[in-house]
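Entry 14. Ran structure prediction on the chain below.
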Amino acid sequence: MTTIEEFRDIWDAPLERYVLIRLGNSREQMIIFDPESRMAQIIEDDELALKVIDKMIERGFAILDHIPEGNRE
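Output, structure tokens:
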């Protein structure tokens, strides 16, 4: 069984490490995105994902309406 503590490295990361991308009007419609790797962090358990998102919001991670521009080499 997966616990929220297994994802502590996400909400304990520096604030620039991840952003939350808003896909709709609720936190259920947010994804955790790593701008450096240009990849989403998928948590398959929806209830657990919401808890991690709540922790990230409490910490002050940026919430965006779009995927941020990245380096294109």
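The helical segments are 8-11, 46-59. Will compare against last week's run tomorrow.
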